[in-house]
Write a structure and sequence with these properties.
7-stranded mixed beta sheet
Length: 923
């Protein structure tokens, strides 16, 4: 006891007298105070902030308790790690007593640093365990309005429209979209109440008349025969003493797609259903469970039609006031039906849900006919509408969301899936408000039929009092910012960012309207671009799990996941798409430092590479889509300028090379040797087949054919300078116009940036006269388009061509990590000044804290302002020819003991620093 008190006293004396170190951003499984964790060994992470430079953590102590009060006296009754001599501050695994389902646990951390300082986290963090096995759900059952006839099941889905004659005769979606309710009584003080709930396709939960949480389209979508996600909510403040009521609405999502209007595909896993367990814990230590069963009541909801692909219809006359409140008379409702439910395993949804993330007001309204008005929101984005409308009972107003309009300013859904519309039937009681619940679309405009703006409504016309766009997407936190003096680049940043947000859903979609499917190639090709802006750890971990579930017995990882429908040819089996199965686990390790994803995905990764090997002839692959949507003489589609064998085999080689590295990390020496040998064989075959040793040109010499081998490591070191020169020369000869497509442009930007040709990247992408970003902006695009030329015939909100976003961060601002670094533990700052961008700044929140890079080249000297987070180190490369003077905080560099000079390298001054804020002046 005396020893414990002495240690605690020493800690606090050191804390108050020592360095200005502070612990921030406590995370459990990379989440703040998560609910519903299913791992029995959760991992802890934190960040350090300090006013000092070169601060490194030297040791830590983690305390975990089942009561927050115990932590006040440093009583970690569940786990006390004791003081551990380690600089690790991410992914520290719990090693205490066994954890129990649905229980809350509390934790805090203490750290010591190399400056003699110490700190303790200011607040107590917590997490709650989920329901770890089926028995933890107790007697909860899947319930719905009625059971689906098994003959109507459509799994796998049918691609429609698409010439499949079968789809015309299959019935899907002819079922009731229900509301369900249950009353229960609370008769003593409540300590805590937690709702565990899932609904398929989607649900909306209410308790005592109020919606629970702010999720949209919950839970996230999966292949429901394999996995079904559930959510956990703290509803303590929503339950009251006395009679309470639970109300749930259900929608279709991908679980059941109606066979009417527009549908990219048809699925029917079952009729909408839900399962729920409400755990009420009382202050006296007792508990009550309210579960879904046939004691619940069910009725038809006012949502008379809902489709993820074609819209939603709502009849306000079917509303039953108070249906989700206590005291409502549900005697006329039928008993809920216990249904079979989805076959997949119930698993807690980890990470961030979809939410309404922004409200966008209308910019202009014009009359386009006697019965139609066009509302322009000024921005193409994913989402829904929220309306206020007045009118007579029974009047129906239709809303057609579109991203493009015709020359006469009418709705144009020709290339985004038609018809898609929302409709609202009025009950005729004052200003009525409504928004769709179980669908979304990508749009900028809304054509309103049978209603007019309130100030223009005449006679019996319904009146639109107000309408806003609700921009919906995954709530992954923003962790990056960028701006610069080049207006075109700032607009390009916005263009790409809107496409990222619009397609960052439960999966990474390509477009938010006609497809909404998780096409895999963009997940890694656009991965850095997305990652620099948003924390996508959990989203990408879900994608890996989706791919593991969808892998075929032969080893194929299909082009889309979840694979609701099997496409044909390259649209199901393209190596550049399926290789996400290997590349994403590697990316998650490099970005966040989490090795566990590689470990879990190892069987999938190796099986997929074996599958590719079985299709190769002489180590060369020749199937797939290739450099999709490259800019050639024909309408864009499959690769035109680069042979499919180039991109397919190059990505195959890259997969093998990554497996060799991962095998070493996972301590699999035999596998590492196997893949190193295989990689060497593929490299030899690739160069023998495609490389001209005399001209130093690969295949057709296209931008993709030259850049991709440089980046993935297929070019022999002695040939790299010549190959790179040929790439640059060919671009200059072609007038600095880009031609690479979905696959190749990522590698082109990286090859030029890594090769020191930042000015060429700028020159290619800072113009409006040829297809590219400036060209799209000049045509009026507000989100990145599917084609370089912003063709109206294809999507105008598309994710796949936004690779310049990565260059803004790791090229212009130079924020990256060393090749040997993991999780940005060792940072590199390599700003690449270009003529045309005099000023700029970027920030990025790494697992250890915020990295900041700012440059100002307006004067005869250059100024670089850089921030490196605590518990990391950095190597800084600043453009500075020999003979220039370098100052930091107005003092010569050599005067700083905390900055280590390393010399000059390729026209750059190189030095090493620790954490801190730095201001370098070069003159």
């Amino acid at each position: 006891m005396k020893k414990h008190l002495f240690g605690t006293l020493c800690f606090f004396v050191t804390y108050f007298a020592g360095a200005q170190t502070k612990i921030t951003n406590l995370r459990c499984e990379n989440l703040h105070n998560p609910l519903g964790l299913e791992t029995l060994q959760p991992r802890f992470s934190w960040q350090l902030q300090s006013t000092s430079r070169n601060v490194l953590q030297t040791s830590y102590r983690i305390l975990v308790a089942d009561d927050p009060a115990k932590l006040e006296s440093d009583n970690g009754n569940m786990w006390d790690s004791k003081q551990v001599n380690s600089g690790e501050s991410v992914w520290i695994p719990y090693a205490g007593k066994p954890l129990q389902p649905a229980r809350y646990y509390y934790w805090k951390v203490m750290v010591w640093d190399n400056k003699g300082g110490a700190a303790s986290s200011d607040s107590v963090a917590y997490w709650q365990m989920g329901l770890l096995q089926a028995a933890d759900w107790g007697n909860a059952k899947w319930i719905g309005y009625n059971e689906m006839d098994p003959a109507k099941r459509i799994v796998p889905g049918i691609h429609a429209p698409g010439g499949n004659k079968d789809y015309k005769t299959r019935v899907s979606g002819d079922h009731i979209l229900p509301v369900l309710r249950k009353s229960f009584t609370i008769n003593k003080p409540v300590r805590r109440a937690t709702a565990f709930v899932s609904g398929v396709g989607h649900y909306e939960l209410h308790i005592n008349g109020a919606k629970v949480g702010d999720h949209f389209l919950a839970p996230g979508w999966t292949f429901y025969d394999k996995r079904v996600l559930y959510n956990a909510f703290d509803v303590t403040k929503q339950v009251t003493n006395g009679v309470n009521a639970i109300g749930v609405l259900l929608g279709n999502g991908f679980y059941n797609i109606p066979n009417v209007r527009y549908r990219k595909l048809l699925t029917a896993f079952g009729n909408p259903a839900m399962i729920m367990k409400l755990l009420v814990e009382y202050t006296d230590g007792t508990k009550t469970e309210i579960v879904s069963d046939n004691s619940w009541k069910a009725e038809k909801s006012p949502i008379v039609f809902s489709s993820i692909y074609s819209g939603e219809e709502y009849d306000a006359n079917l509303e039953q006031e108070g249906w989700n409140k206590a005291g409502f008379n549900d005697a006329s409702w039928k008993a809920a039906t216990i249904v079979k439910g989805p076959a997949g395993k119930l698993m807690a949804e980890q990470g961030y849900p979809l939410k309404v993330m922004r409200t966008i007001p209308v910019q202009s309204v014009i009359k386009t006919s006697d019965s139609t008005y066009l509302y322009d929101f000024g921005q193409n984005a994913s989402g829904i509408i929220h309306i206020q409308v007045k009118g007579k009972q029974g009047q129906q107003v239709k809303f057609y969301p579109v991203e493009l309009i015709t020359k006469d300013k009418r709705a144009n859904q020709k290339n985004t899936g038609r018809p898609f519309y929302f409709s609202y039937t009025l009950k005729g009681k004052g200003a009525e408000e409504w928004e769709p619940r179980f669908t979304y679309y990508g749009f900028r405009y809304v054509e309103v039929v049978h209603a007019a703006p309130e100030n223009e409504a005449k006679g019996n016309q319904a009146a639109i009092v107000n309408m806003t766009m609700l921009h919906t997407h995954n709530a992954n936190p923003r962790i990056g910012t960028f701006s610069c003096s080049e207006e075109l680049f700032d607009k390009t940043f916005s263009l790409i960012d809107w496409a990222i947000r619009s397609n960052m859903q439960s999966v990474v979609t390509d477009c938010p309207h006609r497809e909404k499917l998780g096409w895999l190639e963009q997940t890694y090709l656009m991965g850095e671009s997305i990652h620099y802006n948003y924390d996508i750890y959990h989203l990408y971990r879900k994608l890996v799990t989706d791919m593991m579930a969808d892998q075929t017995p032969e080893g194929l990882v299909p082009d889309i996941t979840p694979e609701y429908v099997s496409f044909e040819g390259g649209f199901r089996d393209s190596p550049e798409w399926g290789s996400a199965a290997v590349i994403l686990p590697w990316m998650l390790y490099k970005w966040y430092g989490d090795k566990s994803v590689m470990q879990q995905a190892w069987p999938m990764m190796t099986k997929y590479v074996d599958y590719l090997g079985s299709k190769a002839k002489g180590h060369i692959l020749s199937h797939g889509l290739g450099d999709w949507y490259d800019l050639g003489p024909k309408f864009p589609g499959m690769a035109q300028l680069t042979p499919i064998e180039i991109t397919a085999t190059a990505i195959y080689y890259y997969d093998i090379a990554l497996l060799a590295q991962m095998a070493e990390l996972l301590q699999k020496p035999a596998e590492a040797a196997k893949y190193k040998s295989l990689a060497a064989q593929v490299k030899l075959a690739f160069n023998a087949r495609f490389f001209n040793a005399q001209t130093k040109v690969y295949s057709t010499g296209s931008q993709t054919a030259m850049a991709m081998p440089l980046v993935v490591g297929l070019v022999d070191e002695n040939n790299r300078p010549a190959v790179f020169k040929n790439l640059v020369d060919s671009i200059n000869k072609n007038g600095k116009a880009l031609t690479a497509g979905d696959v190749g442009f990522h590698f082109l930007v990286q090859a030029l940036s890594d090769g020191g040709a930042a000015q060429l990247v700028y020159d290619m992408n800072s113009r409006e006269d040829v297809p590219g970003y400036g060209f799209q902006l000049k045509k009026g695009a507000t989100a990145l388009t599917e084609s370089w030329a912003a063709l109206e015939e294809v999507s105008n909100n598309h994710l796949m061509l936004g690779h310049l976003m990565q260059w803004f961060y790791d090229g212009l601002a130079g924020i990256r990590q060393a090749d040997t670094s993991v999780g940005y533990r060792h940072i590199e700052i390599r700003p690449e000044p270009v003529i045309g961008v005099d000023k700029g700044k970027a920030s990025f929140v790494s697992p250890f804290g915020t990295i900041y890079s700012e440059w100002d080249h307006q004067y005869s000297w250059r100024v670089f302002t850089i921030t490196i987070p605590a518990n990391t180190t950095a190597t800084i490369y600043l453009p500075s020819p020999k003979g220039t003077t370098i100052l930091e905080s107005n003092m010569p560099l050599k005067s700083h003991r905390d900055i280590k000079w390393l010399g000059y390298q390729n026209g750059k001054a190189v030095f090493k620093t620790g954490s801190g804020k730095y201001k370098f002046i070069i003159r």
